[in-house]
Amino acid sequence: MYLRAVHAEGCISVLQQLIRDNPLGILTTAIKSPSHPLIQSSHIPFVLDVPDSGDGTPSNGILRGHIAKQNPQAKVLMEALAAQHEQGQRSLELPDEVLVLFNGPHHHYVTPKFYTETKPATGKVVPTWNYSAVQAYGKIRVFSDSKSEETGSFLQRQVTDLTQQSESRIMGYTGGEAPTPWAVSDSPTSYVDLLKKNIIGIEITIDRLQGKFKMSQEMGPGDREGVIGGFSQLGTETGDGIAQGVKERGEKKDQKAS
Q: 0.85 cut: is pTM over it?
């Protein structure tokens, strides 16, 4: 990720919150395989665990997800794990680093017409694109042996936690005055067990967490106000989201400068 200082976000808790709010990540691997392409990517919803580091330093966290066994990327992961076990290495962790990309909720093209300060003064403006994103790097553990108690326990916890997260945080189904959330236990146990045999679990301990909020904060106050006004006038959810992002990031930049 190209990180200009003005766009970089170094606060771990802010990056973790973007992941929680936008849990659909893009898992990318580069693992050599005799039968599949080197580069593989899959869209996967993740659960983020943030264990206590014990020494007061912020923990990057651990990502948990699952993939269908028929997914070519899952096949590559299982091949790599099997080859590792054939060499006598019983660890479930693979040596190659993986990447998970999370995108913020809003992104949009920015027309130079929004730069109400610089455009009329010099004309030295160009189009760009506003967005926010987080990249998580780390080693991956693969839970693929459906006969293993460890795999069964991991997958049960994973599908249960992911369902609870999605029903409550995304759907707003929390019970009480809100609708009652659906739970994995609402399905027959035999059916859930059958489905678990057709997925693998993945767990990624995050070694590096990088974030970028590119929201016109590199521009001067006048141009930022033009961008906020321009997006607000679009009358769309994305437009309103970008306008709010530009406002927040601009204020944060100004506070640092003061």
A: yes
